[in-house]
Structures are given as C-alpha cells and as structure tokens.
C-alpha cells in the first residue's frame, strides 16, 4: 500500500472515499478495448513513452488483467506466455498499478495532497518501469522456449547454375566456421557435389548448447560477384536457399516402426574400395506420408540409420508445424527460421565487400564480407542483432493481433 495512502487511512472521509474508489478497480473483466485505450490513466503525465513503449505497456496491462481474473487459462491466444512462472511478477505489478491509481484518486480529491501524491507516484512509476522490463524480458524469452539440442541445416543451390553451387559451398564453409567458433559439433548428413567442386545440396547436423544462434538463417541468400568463369568481368547474381530444421525428440514426434520401410544398399560416389563392398547406405521411407530420406556418409549402417531417422523426424515435425494454423504456431515458425523460405533475407556483395541483411534495414549492413564469410565474430554480431530484432517484431505482431481483436 502507498505510504501516502497509509498516512490518510485514519481520516474517515478519505478512507471511505478510497474504499469506494478501490471497489471500482477490483478484479473484474475489462474489455480488451478498454485495456488498450484507457491504461494511460495508470501511467499518465510523468512517463514520456514512445509508441512502442506505450503499446508494450498496454500489452502488459492486458496480460495483468488476464492474470488477475485467471481468464488466461482459457485464452489460447497467449499460450506462449507462461503466466505461472511469472506469477510473482504479475502479483507485484498488480500492487504497483493499484498504488498508482489510488494516489491519482487522492490527488483528484484534494489539492493540498495532490503534490505529495504526484511525488510518490513518480517513485512507483519508476518501480513499475523496472518491473515491466523484467516481465517483458521473461515473456520474450518464453516466446523462444522451443529449444533443441540438434538442428539440421539444409543448403540448396537456387538460380545461377554452377555459380549458385559454388555459393552453396561458401555458405557451408561459413556455417562450419561458425559452428567451430561456437564450439558446436557438426556432421555432414547428405551431400551432392558437382564436377567444378561446387555443392548442389548439403545437409549438416549441428549439435550443442548454442544452436539457437542459427535459428534466423533460414531463407534465400543472394550473392553478387564476378564468377571465376566470367571473361567479361560482369557481376552475376545467384541464390541459395537455407532451411533450419530443429530435430525434435522421439517424444515430440512418435513414429510407428510399422510405418517405415528401411532399405540398405551400397554407397555411391567417392569413397574408395569401401564404397563397393559394404551395404552401409540407408534409405528410410515413411509409408503414410511417402517421405523418403537417405544417408550414406558413414561406413556404419547403424549410424547412417540413426541420422536418417533424425532427418525424417525433422521433416515430419516441420510438416506438423505447417499444418497448425494458430497465430502462436506461426510465430514459432518464424522464430525458428521457417517463415522466410521464399524471402530474400541477405545479400553478399563481393565487389563492395558488403553483407546486407534486409530484415534489419540500415542496421543490417556490414562492410567486412571476407571476415563475415569465416563465420566468426561478425556473423555472431549479426545473429545477436537479428535475435533482438525478431523478439521485438514478434511482440509487435502479438500486439497488432490483440488490437485487431479489440475492434
């Protein structure tokens, strides 16, 4: 309870007025529209908030009301917010908001006490701002709650012919360098090479504690440079598509063994005498969906089978996500890098030694392409920017959806 309210509680007139005021602000179900457009009465003249901050406050007001009324239990739209884990923060926020409102009411009733109420209100608003930062961080972190110990990176040549396949090899080297920089394990699952030492398609398994730093790499990557075979010095534009597939656990994706057709054969391609003598290659077909995956990179049939199963599970998991139409499911797809496959997300301009990530606007340009392609500090800096940017974008999408529902 506010210090000023406690000072006034022995004044029967003020106390009765305060009690009546509190009854008006009990935990009743406000409409979403009122939540979004009247919450400024709690935080009025002292906080000069910009548009984003103002909307964020209204979003937190909405969540606070859902928590107070326990109506969040039946609100599927905010199922990405773990209100149980953040309950203590919401309880604290409820108390702070009530203190601010009570002081505002006291100031409206008495001119002499208004000055004291305003001074104390400033202190409570500072506490509220600090609390909201902690609460917002917890909510945004929870939006990224789908963590995996393994992911599969698939890189496929797009337009540009042989130059596109050489670009796939460059991206592969960049991601391997990044994995080593982050101290992550990596393993080639599948690879299709070309005669000019390019790569038509490659799948890589990445494992470790920081694989989330790859989650925003999914999409179309564009390269602009003069190919080695270009005699007139003209700049060519080629593309490669990158897909980030989280590897779910067996619990998340259950596969009936009776639905699988497992075949073994001799590996094809480079590999020496072993290729022609051992049936180590494994192809697994998921009969209900018709999906078929192959792995032949290891001499061990058992290891190839395990990798093929992981890849099959990842593809089925992605298909399951794509079938889900809920708003939060779509947000999760974007967070994992699945929502940008048909979008040009990044351009690598070799002539100008520049990398531009188009999702970040002016904040997405790096003038150190050679260093960037090594997959170290420069790529990590971009990933950190993307992580912060995507969290805010996700929040804005949630707020926009809430606003549209309130109309």
UniProtKB/TrEMBL annotation:
Traced from the root, the source organism's taxonomic lineage reads: Eukaryota, Metazoa, Ecdysozoa, Arthropoda, Hexapoda
Give every Prokaryotic-type class I peptide chain release factors domain span. 266-282
Signal peptide (from-to): none
**What SMART domains does the record tag this protein with?**
PCRF
What is this protein's record name?
A: Prokaryotic-type class I peptide chain release factors domain-containing protein
GO cellular component, as recorded: cytoplasm
Q: Which organism is it from?
A: Atta cephalotes
Domain of life per record: Eukaryota
Pfam families reported for this sequence: PCRF, RF-1
Molecular-function annotations in GO:
translation release factor activity
Q: Which gene encodes it?
A: 105620541
In which family does this protein belong, per the annotation?
Belongs to the prokaryotic/mitochondrial release factor family.
Q: Which InterPro entries match?
A: PCRF (IPR005139), Pep_chain_release_fac_I (IPR000352), Pep_chain_release_fac_I_sf (IPR045853), Prokaryotic/Mito_RF (IPR050057)
Keyword Protein biosynthesis tagged: yes
Q: Which UniProt keywords apply?
A: Methylation, Protein biosynthesis
């Amino acid at each position: 309870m506010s210090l000023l309210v406690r000072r006034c509680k022995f004044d029967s007139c003020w106390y009765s007025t305060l009690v009546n005021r509190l009854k008006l602000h009990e935990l009743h179900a406000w409409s979403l529209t009122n939540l979004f457009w009247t919450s400024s009465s709690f935080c009025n003249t002292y906080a000069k908030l910009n548009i984003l901050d103002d909307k964020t406050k209204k979003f937190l007001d909405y969540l606070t009301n859902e928590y107070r009324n326990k109506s969040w239990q039946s609100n599927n739209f905010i199922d990405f917010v773990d209100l149980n884990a953040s309950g203590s923060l919401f309880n604290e926020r409820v108390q702070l908001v009530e203190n601010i409102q009570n002081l505002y009411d006291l100031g409206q009733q008495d001119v002499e006490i208004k000055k004291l109420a305003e001074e104390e209100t400033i202190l409570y608003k500072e506490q509220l701002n600090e609390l909201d930062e902690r609460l917002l961080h917890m909510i945004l972190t929870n939006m990224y709650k789908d963590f995996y110990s393994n992911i599969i990176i698939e890189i496929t040549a797009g337009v540009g012919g042989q130059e596109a396949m050489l670009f796939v090899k460059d991206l592969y080297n960049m991601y391997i360098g990044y994995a080593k920089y982050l101290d992550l394990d990596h393993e080639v699952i599948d690879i299709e090479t070309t005669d000019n030492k390019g790569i038509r398609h490659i799948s890589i398994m990445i494992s470790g504690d920081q694989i989330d730093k790859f989650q925003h790499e999914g999409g179309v990557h564009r390269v602009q440079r003069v190919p080695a075979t270009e005699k007139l010095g003209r700049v060519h534009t080629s593309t490669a598509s990158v897909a980030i597939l989280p590897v779910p656990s067996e619990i998340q994706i259950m596969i009936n063994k009776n639905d699988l057709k497992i075949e073994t054969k001799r590996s094809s391609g480079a590999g020496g005498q072993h290729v022609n003598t051992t049936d180590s290659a494994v192809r697994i077909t998921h009969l209900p969906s018709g999906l078929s995956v192959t792995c032949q990179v290891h001499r061990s049939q058992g290891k190839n089978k395990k990798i093929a199963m992981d890849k099959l599970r990842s593809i089925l998991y992605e298909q399951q996500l794509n079938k889900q139409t809920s708003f939060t499911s779509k947000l999760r797809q974007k967070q994992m890098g699945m929502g940008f496959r048909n979008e040009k997300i990044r351009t690598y301009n070799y002539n100008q030694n520049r990398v531009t990530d188009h999702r970040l606007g002016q904040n997405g340009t790096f003038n150190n392409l050679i260093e960037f392609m090594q997959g170290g500090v420069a790529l990590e800096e971009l990933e950190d920017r993307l992580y912060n940017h995507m969290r805010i974008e996700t929040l804005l999408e949630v707020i926009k959806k809430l606003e549209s529902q309130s109309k």
